[in-house]
């Protein structure tokens, strides 16, 4: 056996785990009982996820390895996606998957965020390069919905919702990445109310491709005499092909792809350099108000951040499935529980079990955090109680950096463990395990690096409502942990104790942040990353424990929750220590002598 | 600036850090004072390292990215290494670098292990694909020295020592990897005292290439009627070209390369499938006793394990250097310490500093552990006091799994952080940061996976001398920590407290291992990996602290040691907790229902 067998590379959507996570972390039954999802019930939601699982497994997953091998190709400003992608995208659109979360006004199905999150995991587990295209289109739709005139909405959204056209986000320039302040793409107002856009954008995912009739670019640019920095940035819609008033396609706009990047992973997804206005200026339409483009773009980015978190969950799930399948097949040595002749499947070896359990537990914890975030977005969107909407929006804001950063960090850890489980075969590309790590490696970087997520959490999210948002969330976790403690179930091992310690650490670290944010802001920045990890581990462990409370003693979910508490959550106390006492040593010698 | 600039991809050997680590962790001055290294002094050693640094930076490092891009090519049983490799290898041999650590009897320079370790780091930092060739040749030389007749030594060693011929280790077969018991390559004794070798080996590094006149394969095979399992394995020397008694090359032996692997990394290093005896049997010569081949091979593997650990240190050092250089150049946002207009270099941002410090501190800690291991190998080899030699051999045995596993684990963590520091550019191959991660990913797998290292540490090394070896090592660490505590230096922050907690955790975990190894061996296996990490962090933190004790308050070494204690060693208590209370939850449901 030289390679990952067909079996071990097959993806099967973990529908039961997904539904369980929706019930546990997203409180699905509660949401349904509140009447939040008109016309929907748990069975329908389950059926949608089941269907998505089939589509992902049958149509998208088989293109994952071949898409990686062939990659998208660039010739003369055109991009050719790998064989099968075009047809898969057509089926995706025809199957109604692109319209699933969109507003019914524009032809969408109006399904809630929790369903969108569930199927988003599936698309990305099946094929993260493919999944990026609808993820970005979705983000563009959100931004247009949030900021456009009715005329623009009517002209562009129905085709984008239907998946006939796709969307992109054009933010980054060579000197403007994490900090968009210095971006220099220009927009000149024209007498007809349009703008001429000129500039170069880099790292534009699906900036050019052959899967859709048109591509709708959302572009950050600067008006003449706009204020410097981020307060002088406006957002424009720039279609690849101009669109007539009747919706038919007109001539080619002045925007071209100048090349695609040679990357570590997500090979099938073209990462484009886009040139706007090489022939005088691309025609653009203002979205939202002048100089307020970043606010609208943030609407899009926040949704996309949860989407990227779900990419992490998806890749982690896929890597875990393949590692488990391989560990069942591969035989080496004799385990303690082995009897009979011949070698044991390596899944029986304790150290391999530790790796597989780590993969499984981390993946499930990240999924729970992402779904909990989606729940709040649904309440924020659908509740008819003002205070509920506001509270949910704040809680979603608090959880979004966790969903993005933790899920994508663990995606890398899990994918790396997946390679390790395969031994030497893991390093051979045909096995498929290495691709997950290569694909996962971009996730902590794009849509705001994980360092920026941590700083966002600490500096913008902890202060929400004077700290009441985080306090309320910690109280919610404390309630679950109290239930675990009083349940006193022997099969929980020391779960209650580990959770309590972690929460105590998180409480102290949160207090420390509160005390230092204003007086020692640089120290708060220095401790942001361990703080985010601490909060994520505590939240993830608590969600897993909440799930375990509803299961019987022999349930694998109990075993995973206990493993998480006893082997992964043990990191929490040390993280709390680093947050509170580690910042000074990060900042010593801040002017560079240390790195001389 | 689109790519890692020339500056940021340049490697400069960290000669000062290497010499400092030799003084601190290897106790260089003490070894010199003992008269262990006849004819050597600190200046000479420093000069050798300096020269190696030049050779690495000037000859090997420039081939690292191009070697990755082009890779080794396979055509018709021949392997062509990337442009420049052949010539670089010739210069390497001519410069005397291949003979550096070898016995003078066969033309070597007889330099000690600590020097070999220092230059080994440099070769691998410069070019890990290149570094593998001398690493394996060195291992083959050791095995031949340890097990061969004088005639074989005289015939093969001088050319191998000179670097004219290279060596390989042929262990793995498709069904025999971590467990060599089932290997099925056969060896038939011939009337002339030679053996006919028949079988297929996989994952043979530099099994075929164009850099040397001959390749000396060391091959594990099974004699007819040999006992089953690992007690029936013998070791054979199988040259690519047969060698006449006068040392000149004869005809081609019956061994061919049948292909090379398409891998995630170390692209320039050919990983070969080797076929022995397709035309009736390759001629082989027995090394050591019949059926005792594994014992001799372990001589080779133990040396190679330290060598692989140093590959980890090398890759980590290179990734750290590039990340620091990039973080100095790249400007985004304004740091707290920034004044003036324009953006700050990202090295001023606290979260970037945390990443860079983590990279630097982990790399230095791993280097210290590797050099401490090399020290013991030198005493074991060179002391004229029996008891000293024995004690050093045991201590080297204890430290080798740490040197291998910890250094290679952190190499992956550091390389991944290096990508993160580069942001989006890190994901673009031309930047060079991604290669370090791709190259590093094999290190925790080959020469015994890191899981196997952990089990080796726990099941074979902790019981050495009834536990006295580990007890003595913990006492050695405790002495340093006591000095840190009594020094009471304010610039040490909470270093003493963190070290004391870590050591306490390690002591408890070691006691737990001692109590459980026999009564609950599967639990000991389950906790082996966190135990190895705990011991490595404690050892690494202690060596860094020992170094800090000899430095003044403003020294960057003090800052790094303190950062390590306050931000990385904080993981120790949680690891100790997992070791002692986490094993049960690894083992629950051991028959597979959990992974249904």
UniProtKB/TrEMBL annotation, chains A, B:
Under Pfam families, the record lists: Acyl-CoA_dh_1 (PF00441), Acyl-CoA_dh_C (PF12806), Acyl-CoA_dh_M (PF02770), Acyl-CoA_dh_N (PF02771)
Residue ranges of every copy of the Acyl-CoA oxidase/dehydrogenase middle domain listed in the record: 169-276
Residues in the signal sequence? none
Q: Which residues form the Acyl-CoA dehydrogenase/oxidase N-terminal domain?
A: 50-163
Give the required cofactors. FAD
What this protein catalyses is:
3-(methylsulfanyl)propanoyl-CoA + oxidized [electron-transfer flavoprotein] + H(+) = 3-(methylsulfanyl)acryloyl-CoA + reduced [electron-transfer flavoprotein]
Location of the Acyl-CoA dehydrogenase/oxidase C-terminal domain: 291-457
Enzyme Commission code(s) on record: 1.3.99.41
Q: Name one GO molecular function term.
A: oxidoreductase activity, acting on the CH-CH group of donors
Q: Which residues form the Acetyl-CoA dehydrogenase-like C-terminal domain?
A: 475-587
Q: What is this protein called?
A: 3-methylmercaptopropionyl-CoA dehydrogenase
Species of origin: Hyphomicrobium denitrificans 1NES1
